[in-house]
Amino acid sequence: MKDRKGSEGICHSIVLESYALPGQLNIGSDSHTPHVGAIGCVAFGIGTTDVFNGWITKDVRVKIPESVKVVVRGKRHANVTAKDFILKILSLDYVRSGKALAKVMEYAGEAIEELSVDERATMTNMAAEIGGFTGIVAPDKKAVDFLVERRGMDRAKAEAMIEGLYSDQGAQYAHVIELDAAEIHPMVATPGDPGNGKNVRDLNTPVPVDIAYGGTCTAGKNEDMDMYAAVLADALKHGKRIADSVEFYIQFGSQETREYCLRKGYLDVFQKAGAHVIEPACGACINAGPGVSKRPEQIVISAQNRNFPGRSGPGQMYLASPLTVAASAVAGYIVEYEPSEKKELVGA
Question: How does 73-85 read in b/e, with b if 16+ C-beta sit within 10 Å?
């Protein structure tokens, strides 16, 4: 569109939207390169020295990693998202003890198959926080639909592209993690580490929020915008807006997502609810621009991927899903989102 502003977007978002294809090997200079594993790529990040060497030698040397299979079975609750799944996984002893380091995280099971490509990308993206080599989901009809609808690819060509891209029957893994989606509830990672996951409902006292932030490669995709818009539209329907005590920033991951929001009418919803919309960029996740805390006592709830000390300012940062972030911005303190109509919100 002619009124484009800001950068084209975050590299991980753009590579998934426009370039990566199932079965490809994708190598980038950033730890969140596994983002594109959502459509069946083997994608991993390397350091700048390895990038330089690769330009000269045409090689990137890696040791073939072991794999961990994460199976999420069953049906998730309507207010649970891929971000809640990954925060749950990050909280497990196997991951927190470092046993998943440098391993391929393969996500499977009915609850993963139900997720859209945008939501799967949240899972593969945050293989970085696990310390994994990469994250991957076997491509299926949803991957084909993504390539057809978002890329304009011929369906037969897309279907041929995913043939055989799944694990062998009886494949052996270094470890298998099995979870029941019905037992996973909206989660937060408390300040200091993405592995500090706990249920929102288990927070001992109400946690007031000063800043809410929705964006980054992890949570600035089209479907993340669907979630912010659903919560804020629901709030407006009930005569509510973002709490006076909260500054809520919503940042697009790419120009494609910005244009998607324009088409869907989301900018009007965001504005009416009192949210601040930011042009595409990494933003607060890299301590840049609005959404960054200024004082240690400030409390931030963010849909980004990391909450290490100082990552996004000196404040206390909680990580959560787009639904939880938006609901907390409206409430003024950290809460689960309770849709007024019990319906499927994401991943359909």
Answer: eeebbbbbbbbbb
Q: Are 210 and 242 in contact (CB under 8 A)?
A: no
Per the listing, tokens 């790529």 go with 41
Contact assessment for residue 72 and residue 181, using Cβ atoms and an 8 Å cutoff: yes
φ and ψ at residue 138, rounded to 5 degrees: -60, 130
- Which helix (H) or strand (E) segment is 111 a member of? helix 110-113
11-183 matches 187-331 in fold: yes
Q: Where are the domains of the chain?
A: 11-183, 187-331
CA distance 348 to 153: 21
11-69 confidence digits (pLDDT tens): 999 999 999 999 999 999 999 999 999 999 999 999 989 999 999 999 998 999 999 99
> Residue 202 gets which letter from DSSP?
G
Homologous superfamily of domain range 11-183: Aconitase, domain 3 (3.30.499.10)
CB 103 within 8 A of CB 65: yes
pTM of structure = 0.95
User: Is the CATH number 3.30.499.10 carried by domain 187-331?
Assistant: yes
In the three-class reduction of DSSP (H, G, I as helix; E, B as strand; rest coil), residue 256 is classed as helix
**Strand partners of residue 69:** 106, 176
Confirm if 345 and 227 have CB atoms less than 8 A apart: yes
pLDDT in tens, 143-177: 999 999 999 999 999 999 999 999 999 999 999 99
C-alpha span between 154 and 144 (Å, rounded): 9
Q: Phi/psi of residue 86, each to 5°?
A: -70, -35
Phi, psi of 154 (to 5 degrees): -65, 135
